[in-house]
């Protein structure tokens, strides 16, 4: 632990260090003025030195806000459909929390609160209080959705309508008309669920907080939040592609969702192309003006930009040095000695093309018989949306294809495809 003579680095690496540096410069300026007035510079210097926080003390102050004149971290409310943890009920008033497969897991530089669904139905008040208390230790705040809402909002509108459309798969034929009963029911549930998220955010919001909404599950949320408080700082980020305006135009609720997203102050996408598609949809469908900075509607500017994200590469590099990882690498090298290994790691999703990849590998083996004993495809598939019928069909299809190819080209000692269904943490880092 450093002593009280801690001085922030010349090049601040974080918001906290920048604030400490600015504070140092202000006090240094007062010190210079004092020496010019003939005061005791040494005494002033000692007081200035003693006034600096140690690095750990500064972090503690930023977390607790113990002193009003000390720098604090910006409070950030991250709102996503799922929390970074999943809850498993173990009794009337007890829950076990596990890290979720996928999701948002790391936001640094901020005093963060997570708001979302914990993946479990909790109809009773005792259970809700117990879960809220358990999640509070991890700075998570639950939104309680019942089974009907989850089925219509998440499995229905989100995964049956928006997800395929945003990935250019188009709408199911029966959902193309706004008068379709199932579509209307799902869309009503979608709006209701977004309003429930907004109610929880508004309950925990404090002046100065930044609210960060995530993904296609919560496109209606920015409008709900701004209706509560038009001064609230709201951002929305999409974790999927945003389709061209011609594709988005096929969605019956297209205008409603676009205007809801435009209520945010900042809208973010993975790539410039997705951002361009969004602006194009706003101009062509809503008839409003696009600008180099975003979209302007009746004097209100919504900034639109691309913010590429990735993984925590340093974490993987550190993992390579672990003894258990080294031992596993040694086992794999011995197991596949003399063979080329083709590795695939994908979520078991319709858009990932896993069946097509496996069938292409079969075609390769058909046309290159001399490679059959020299190459192996190691496909790791992470299950997702296991309660959706289309994904259950996909899982069965992949298993059938793998079994047929291994039966055709495999031997008593080796098979060409190793298909592993593994629940691993595929995580997004910011």
From TrEMBL:
Its EC number is 2.4.1.15. This is alpha,alpha-trehalose-phosphate synthase (UDP-forming). GO terms for biological process: trehalose biosynthetic process. Residues 23-68 are annotated as: Disordered. Residues 36-46 have a biased composition (Basic and acidic residues). It comes from Pisum sativum (Garden pea). GO terms for cellular component: cytosol. Signal peptide: none annotated. Keywords: Glycosyltransferase, Transferase. It is an enzyme of class 2 (transferase). One of its GO terms (molecular function) is alpha,alpha-trehalose-phosphate synthase (UDP-forming) activity.
């Amino acid at each position: 632990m450093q002593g009280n003579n801690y001085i922030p680095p010349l090049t601040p690496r974080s918001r906290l260090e920048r604030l400490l540096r600015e504070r140092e410069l202000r006090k240094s300026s007062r010190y210079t003025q004092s020496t010019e007035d003939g005061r005791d510079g040494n005494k002033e210097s000692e007081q200035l030195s003693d006034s600096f926080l140690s690095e750990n003390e500064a972090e503690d102050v930023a977390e607790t806000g113990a002193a009003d004149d000390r720098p604090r971290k910006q409070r950030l409310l991250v709102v996503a459909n799922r929390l970074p943890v999943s809850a498993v009920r173990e009794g009337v008033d007890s829950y076990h929390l596990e890290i979720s497969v996928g999701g948002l897991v790391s936001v640094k530089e901020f005093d963060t609160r997570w708001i979302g669904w914990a993946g479990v139905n909790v109809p009773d008040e005792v259970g809700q209080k117990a879960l809220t208390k358990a999640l509070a230790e991890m700075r998570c705040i639950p939104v309680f959705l019942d089974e009907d809402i989850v089925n219509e909002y998440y499995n229905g509108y989100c995964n049956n309508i928006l997800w395929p459309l945003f990935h250019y798969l188009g709408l199911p034929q029966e959902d193309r008309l706004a008068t379709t009963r199932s579509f209307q029911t799902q869309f009503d549930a979608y709006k209701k669920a977004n309003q429930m998220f907004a109610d929880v955010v508004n309950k925990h919001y404090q002046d100065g907080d930044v609210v960060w909404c995530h993904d296609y599950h919560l496109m209606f949320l920015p409008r709900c939040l701004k209706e509560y408080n038009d001064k609230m700082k709201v951002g929305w980020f999409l974790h999927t592609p945003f389709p061209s305006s011609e594709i988005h135009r096929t969605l019956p609720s297209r205008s409603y969702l676009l205007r809801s997203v435009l209520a945010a102050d900042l809208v973010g996408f993975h790539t410039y192309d997705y951002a361009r598609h969004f602006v194009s949809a706003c101009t062509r469908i809503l008839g409003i003006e696009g600008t180099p900075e975003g979209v302007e509607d009746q004097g209100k500017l919504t900034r639109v930009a691309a913010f590429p994200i990735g993984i925590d590469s340093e974490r993987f590099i550190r993992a390579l040095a672990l003894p258990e990882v080294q031992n596993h690498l040694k086992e794999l090298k011995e197991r596949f000695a003399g063979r080329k290994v083709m590795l695939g790691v994908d979520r078991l999703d319709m858009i990932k093309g896993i069946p097509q990849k496996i069938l292409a590998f079969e075609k390769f083996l058909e046309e290159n018989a001399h490679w059959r004993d020299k190459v192996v495809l190691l496909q790791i598939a992470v299950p997702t949306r296991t309660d959706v019928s289309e994904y259950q069909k996909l899982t069965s299809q992949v298993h059938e294809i793998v079994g047929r190819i291994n039966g055709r080209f495999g031997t008593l000692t080796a098979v060409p495809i190793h298909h592993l269904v593994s629940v691993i943490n595929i995580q997004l880092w910011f």
